[in-house]
Amino acid sequence: MIEITEASIDHAAITERVRSTRAGAVCTFLGTVRELTGTRRTESLSYEAYPEMALKKLAELEEEARRRWPVIELALVHRLGHLDLGEVSVVVAVSCPHRQDAFEACRWLIDTLKEVVPIWKKENWADGGAEWVHPGLDSR
Amino acid sequence: MGRPKLLLPLGGVTVIEGVVTALRRGGAERVIVVAPPAESPEGPALAAAIARAGAEVLSPESRPAEMRQSVELGLVALANDPPPRWVILCPGDAPGLTPKLVANLLELAARRRDCIVIPSHEGRRGHPIVLPWDVAAEVRTLPPDVGVNALVARHADRVIELPVPDPGLIADLDTPEDLDRWSRRPSRPDRDTEDSAPPALALDQAPRSRDTMHVRVRLFALAKERAQRSQLELELPVSATVADLRAALGARLPGLAALWARALIAVDQEYAGDDAILTAGAEIAVIPPVSGGAFRLRNLTIDDRDH
To answer: At A56, which CATH number?
Structure first.
């Protein structure tokens, strides 16, 4: 299951979706909106995607994860738009026969997703101002 | 044409020598020429010219009836273990072929690994064409009376075209008039010069080619915000590369120099290196570094990771 959505994400429903009687392990990762970055306070985040390419890259991630691990079910869901503190921005849920594979696949999926999938976030700071997070670029 | 057209002189060498030289300098590892039988009148002279240019000569005992049979013979010779990744099919009479065109075709093939690459000028396709080996290997499965073009039709969804600025680059010699035009071409582009050398005479009476193409570039995140638009329209030289695109973006919006330098460029939804060649219809996007990623690599693909 691959999805990018402006609606809030029901992570419990997604975890439920990947459960299977063939699986002995389910691993769900949630990315959530953190208030503090160092001493700076975040009020909200805004996510933007290059949607066509993001969906394509997510599908490639699923394919590659299934090639590397004995994945039974897998879900990659990313939120777009405005997110308040604590909201879920991304869900990776994986079911496998055994826990080691589920952990490894889940970890690889979220790490790789954050490097190759064209989705960007903008910090809306509590002290005013906003900036795109583009590592390596001074975006202010 | 009275005498074998492949042995006609053009630019100080024979037509066939020029073609072999262009293929080799353009990056072809092996060049095999399927020639007429050694006993035929022109056989020995042709074999000598081909060998002079550094290609292997394949002389069947009887003259192949169709071009498709010649292609099949050449493919058998190339089917080593492992076979090549790509095969370039080129008629012997391609007087305009240059090393640059061959290199550009191979580069595009390397970037779009499963694609058939065909040069085109204003929508008209020409020679040579690059076939991935799995497609080339299907030649022997074609019925005897069916040409290689049937393979291109069968895999139409895998075809990409490389636009070229000059129809002469991809034409062949079919009539005496063709060669006459070629030999009278006052400033025929030398095979060692850039393809963009202005042609004095177009082979097919097409209007003088435009040397630029129009591309649309999608912008996201900081790029979109700073440019205050979600896409830019640019004029680029035909066969421009991603590096040329970066330069053009810098010229248009110099205030964002760091962004144009650091962003990745996606072509048809794949990250593309600076050497990648752009085509007019390509979907081009500027991808600023993504939020979670370190973007350590300039050409990050999923396959490249963790191996």
So the answer is: 3.90.1170.40
Cβ within 8 Å of A, B 194-223: 218, 220-222
Please tell me which residue of chain B has the smallest CA distance to A118.
B290
Q: Which residues pair with A27 in a beta bridge?
A: A94
Does residue B290 belong to the interface with chain A, where contact is any CB pair within 8 Å?
A: yes
Q: Length of chain A in residues, anyone?
A: 140
Name chain B contacts of A114, Cβ cutoff 8 Å: 290-293
Q: Inspect the interface and report whether the beta carbons of B285 and A50 lie closer than 8 Å.
A: yes
Full domain range(s) for residue A121: 2-132
pTM summary value: 0.54
Question: Nearest CA to B204 among B90, B123, B98?
Answer: B123
Nearest to A136 among B220, B262, B269 (CB): B262
Listing DSSP states for B198-221 in one string gives PPSS-TT-PPPPPSEEEEEEE--H
The verdict on A134 touching B (C-beta cutoff 8 Å) is yes
CATH assignment, B5-184? 3.90.550.10
CB contact under 8 A, A132 and B290: no
In a domain, A128, yes or no: yes
Report d(CA B201, CA B294) in Å as an integer: 51
Show Cβ contacts of residue A13 under 8 Å, excluding neighbours closer than 6 positions. none
ipTM of the complex: 0.92
Domain B212-304 in CATH 3.40.50.300? The answer is no
Walk along chain B (307 residues) in steps of 10 and give the mean pLDDT of each run: 72 83 84 84 84 84 77 81 83 82 84 83 82 85 77 81 78 64 52 38 36 91 91 90 94 89 93 91 92 45 39
